[in-house]
């Protein structure tokens, strides 16, 4: 049997890996500019962390986790998301007793057992940020501004930002009651999942994927009409913050995070045109989460975005990336010069020049063709004349012009020419 990567997973091969490096570079740079620092947590955690930190009634926990027992029969789970792990790390290392807010970002693989389709995988990658320790609505605005800045830097202009406020525990309790009263008379029209959960968690009906549920509860009372004064003014400031930064948004009553620890701001980014899975990222405030996971009462806010979906959106980038091209190729006209070539190769690379040679025993002419394939800008030719007289021939692959360069000056000459190329090409 031919072995294949498991369903829902895939390989990232060159030259595609350059696109990943490019996007990851922009994500990291943007987060760092906004004052977020990288956190790396383990790929697997105790299962209990996600049961508590993601919520035991969520689809992720009930249906989608990769859970296994290790050799000591502990139940471990491949992380389905990274917020819970960040909260665990915050508590475990008592970060909350240091300077606040703690601002973190992460990039890495997540695992969910779901039906694979375009934009949905079983191992996928998320970039996310978390900020702990402040309840300022300006921080909510900052986090959303960061998300939009990432899209801008990636050249993505066609996006839709949806926002809502899910209030605090107090205003939500009142609202929940109202919603249950609205849903109860039409409960038979709900999907089976919602029929079982609407009493305990009526908000989940609002973001249910089934159309029939939305039709059943039409004209439902909205959360935004039931916010307490504090929550209403928090939401107002967030919206003002976005406006002041010229960020368009759409208030979306259906956007609720169905879990108790979510509070106030909730948001989601969609990019129409990347298929059915158009949500590129989402997040919100989760002021109850740290306490729910056994830590102090500490507010938090964050988002996660899927890198695969970003890639779908920026696919046109591929051609623009100077992926894996060599700067210089060393061609030898004779096997006797292998050592000289290797030594020169090392010196070039020590100068951060992308240098390459042949390892397949190609003829001189075939080496030149290979150099062309690698996209080398220059070729250094080492032949009998060169060795006897102490120079190298430097060939410009575009103009085909060849010059003789003193052995001692070759590195400097290559460096100068590359600087000119780069300067010329912006
Ligand atoms: P979530 O943690 O479910 O709020 O997801 C945040 C973002 O991660 C989504 O908007 C997607 O871009 C991405 N995402 C979630 N699940 C998957 C998946 N199975 N495959 C690819 N991307 C995903």
Considering the chains and any ligands shown, give keywords for the structure.
5-stranded mixed beta sheet; binds adenosine monophosphate; alpha+beta; 426 residues; BirA Bifunctional Protein, domain 2
Short description:
By secondary structure, the chain is of the alpha+beta class.
Would you write up a description of this structure?
The protein has 426 residues and is an alpha+beta fold. The protein has two domains: 16-168 and 228-318, BirA Bifunctional Protein, domain 2 (2-Layer Sandwich), CATH 3.30.930; 325-425, Anticodon-binding domain (Rossmann fold, 3-Layer(aba) Sandwich), CATH 3.40.50. The chain has 16 helices and 16 strands. An eight-stranded mixed β-sheet has the order 1-5-6-11-10-9-7-8. It has a five-stranded mixed β-sheet with strand order 13-12-14-15-16, sandwiched between helices. Strands 2-4-3 form a three-stranded antiparallel β-sheet. α1 packs antiparallel against α5 (137-153). The model has no long low-confidence stretch (mean pLDDT 93). The chain binds adenosine monophosphate.
């Amino acid at each position: 049997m031919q072995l294949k990567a498991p369903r829902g997973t895939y390989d990232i091969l060159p030259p595609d890996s350059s696109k990943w490096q490019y996007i990851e570079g922009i994500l990291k740079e943007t987060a760092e500019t906004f004052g977020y620092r990288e956190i790396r947590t383990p790929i697997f955690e105790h299962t209990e962390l996600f049961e508590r930190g993601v919520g035991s009634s969520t689809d992720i926990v009930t249906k989608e986790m990769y859970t296994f027992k290790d050799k000591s029969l502990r139940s471990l789970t491949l992380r389905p998301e990274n917020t819970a792990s960040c909260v665990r790390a915050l508590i475990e290392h008592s970060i909350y007793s240091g300077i606040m807010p703690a601002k973190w970002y992460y990039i890495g693989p997540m695992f969910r057992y779901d039906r694979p389709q375009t934009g949905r995988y079983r191992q996928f990658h998320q970039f996310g940020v978390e900020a702990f320790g402040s309840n300022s609505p300006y921080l909510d605005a900052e986090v959303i501004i960061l998300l939009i800045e990432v899209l801008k830097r990636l050249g993505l202009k066609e996006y839709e930002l949806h926002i809502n406020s899910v209030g605090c525990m107090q205003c939500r309790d009142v609202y929940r009651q109202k919603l249950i009263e609205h849903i109860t008379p039409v409960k038979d029209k709900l999907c089976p999942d919602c029929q079982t959960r609407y009493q305990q968690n009526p908000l989940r009906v609002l973001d249910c994927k089934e159309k029939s549920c939305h039709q059943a509860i039409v004209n439902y009372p909205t959360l935004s009409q039931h916010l307490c004064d504090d929550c209403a003014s928090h939401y107002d400031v967030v919206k003002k913050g976005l406006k002041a930064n010229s960020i368009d948004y759409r208030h979306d009553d259906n956007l609720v995070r169905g879990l108790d620890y979510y509070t106030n701001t909730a948001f989601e980014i969609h990019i129409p045109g990347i298929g059915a899975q158009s949500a590129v990222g989402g997040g919100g405030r989760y002021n109850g989460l740290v306490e729910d996971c056994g830590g102090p009462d500490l507010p938090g806010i964050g988002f996660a975005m899927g890198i695969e979906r970003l890639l779908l959106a920026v696919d046109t980038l591929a051609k623009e990336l100077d992926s894996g091209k060599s700067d210089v190729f060393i061609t030898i006209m004779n096997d006797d010069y292998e050592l000289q070539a290797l030594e020169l190769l090392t010196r070039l690379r020590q100068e951060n020049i992308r240098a390459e040679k042949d390892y397949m025993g190609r003829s001189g002419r075939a080496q030149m063709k290979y150099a062309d394939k690698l996209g080398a800008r220059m070729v250094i030719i080492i032949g009998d004349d060169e060795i006897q007289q102490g120079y190298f021939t430097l060939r410009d692959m575009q103009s085909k012009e060849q010059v003789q360069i003193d052995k001692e000056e070759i590195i400097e000459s290559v460096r100068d020419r590359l600087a000119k190329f780069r300067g010329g090409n912006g």
